[in-house]
Amino acid sequence: MANLREPLRFRREYVEKSVWGGRSLERVLGIDLPAGKRIGETWELVDRADVNSVVVGGTFDGRTLGQLVRDHGADLLGRSKPTPDGRFPLLVKFLDAAENLSVQVHPDDAGALAQGGTSEAKTEAWYFLDAGPEGGVWCGLKPGSERAAVEPAMGSAAIVEHLAWWPVKRGQALMVPGGTIHAIGAGVQLLEVQQNSDTTWRIYDWDRVDEATGQPRSQHVAQAAQSTRYDLSPRPPVGEVFLPHVTGAEMAPLARCRYFGMSRLRVTAPAELDTADQFQIYVAISGAGVLVTLDEGREQRTDIGRGDTLLVPAACGVHRFEPLGDEALDLVQLQATG
Q1: pLDDT tens per residue, the chain (338 residues)?
Q2: Which residues bind Zn(2+) (predicted)?
Q3: pTM, entire model
Q4: Any binding-site annotation on 220?
Q5: Which fold, 8-227?
Q6: CATH says 243-336 is which class?
Q7: Per the annotation, does 182 bind a ligand?
Q8: Do domains 8-227 and 243-336 have the same CATH topology?
């Protein structure tokens, strides 16, 4: 069996969202979208029972992410841990909100355990790619909000009055712990990293109607009430503050929790990094470059440019980014921390 010591590129999964999706990922990231469809999300890395990222090119062409976790877990994950059911621990996506997303909440670990069944915990973080002049997000309850006032407002427009509103702009990031009520506002495009979960409890959907049924879209008020945490203070978006990192690159820490970390890398000259025995995910948001790795002394060169996502297995160890041209190679770096 071949060792897993090469960067991995995966087939992009397009998720049509006719209610709120758009086509701005073409403009913001240069992504080719399926014609005539309103794409709300593209899943860049996913290991779920119903959808699984497929490798494109290289030694492992055609293999799924789930297969690689099962067959090459030590090489791929290193000291990072899979989910309890043996899957890749993170899900990475781009998101385009042409219209407001629903007001919603995801359970944290305790909430998912209490709900049981198929409920899964989901903490996430957003890196904002664009937002327009008036773009923003609702995230967290306003200070002083209490259960006695919030729960009766669930299911109606009244819930919005209890939410903190944050204007956002390109280059900012926001951590969204499980249990936080939130909604992404119209005009925002972002990169999201999250726990490997697909549990969303919809609280309010702006009185929209499901086009297929002609009925209001379903809401999950009881589950949302169980999942909402009142001990979390609202967190404002954070900006990029770059610090020296390695020769040729500087880094801006953006978000970190017990599940994952998110940082920005700006590469202006050849920069050598190390996986430190855990997989690394690199998402290019501008510029172009080459990722150089070694496999048994043989140099491998992998192109990376705006809109690309590469998964670098833990076993790759030392690797090097080389920017092309005069423009910096701007990356978002993601990794598991659990």
Answers
A1: 678 999 999 999 999 998 999 999 999 999 999 999 999 999 999 999 999 999 999 999 999 999 999 999 999 999 999 999 999 999 999 999 999 999 999 999 999 999 999 999 999 999 999 998 999 999 999 999 999 999 999 999 999 999 999 999 999 999 999 999 999 999 999 999 999 999 999 999 999 988 778 888 899 999 999 999 999 999 999 999 999 999 999 999 999 999 999 999 999 999 999 999 999 999 999 999 999 998 877 899 999 999 999 999 999 999 999 999 999 999 999 999 97
A2: 106, 124, 182
A3: 0.97
A4: no
A5: Jelly Rolls (2.60.120)
A6: mainly beta
A7: yes
A8: yes
The residues assigned a catalytic role are 202
124 has binding-site annotation: yes
CA atoms within 13 Å, Cβ hemisphere of 134: 4
Beta-carbon-side half-sphere exposure of residue 101 (alpha carbons within 13 Å): 27
Residue type present at position 325: G
Tell me the one-letter amino acid at 95.
Answer: L
The residue extents of the domains of the chain are: 8-227, 243-336
User: HSE-up of 281 (CA within 13 Å, CB side)?
Assistant: 30
Q: Are strands 173-176 and 13-16 parallel, antiparallel or unpaired?
A: unpaired
- Torsions phi, psi for 329 (to 5 deg): -90, 110
**What is the rounded CA–CA span in Å between residue 128 and residue 138?**
14
Residue 127 structure tokens? 């890196």
